[in-house]
Write a structure and sequence with these properties.
Elements (H helix, E strand, L loop, with lengths): L1 H15 L3 H28 L3 H7 L4 H6 L14 H5 L4 H19 L6 H21 L3 H4 L14 H12 L4 H4 L23
Length: about 200
Amino acid sequence: MKKLTNLIKSFWHWFRTPSRIAVGTIISLAFIAGILAWVGFNYGLAETNTEKFCSSCHTNDVYPEYLHSTHFQTRTGVGASCPDCHVPHEFGPKILRKIVAAKEVYAFYTGKVDTIEKFNERRLHMAENEWARMKANDSQECRNCHKMDRMDRSQQKEVAAKMHKFAEENGKTCIDCHKGIAHKLPDMKDVESGFKKEEK
């Protein structure tokens, strides 16, 4: 017990009057630890922002739908992956989205949506949450690629050109019309219409 007391006293004395070498060592170690933590954090963020990560849970529900959508199979080979549409690019909103997504991962691993049947039972609820998120941020993830002011409406079908003009003039956002663009729509019979199924 006496040895332990002496050890604590010695440590406390050293802590209150550290040498320059000790201070330098602590600062250097803290700096290295900070760099490693930042690199690890960014690595984890990047790894959870991949199609592979998303499909690891969504193998049997929305991922196969996405593989048959025009966001995956495109004429030019330029496509959008899961994070392009579901994860904001800006740091703050991205972190917030990751925190919310942790709840979705938890729901999968606790068996709430681990089968296609369970997923479909909650599909409308989950879709409405995502539509509300996209409506609130003015469909920012869509607008990262699709910009209204760059659209050549002469190259669009007549109805699409009219609807895009109407949307621009009336403050509408992409998700107001394009709800079924990459995934099957949930059962919408009790929901107000105003969506466009994806054209094949």
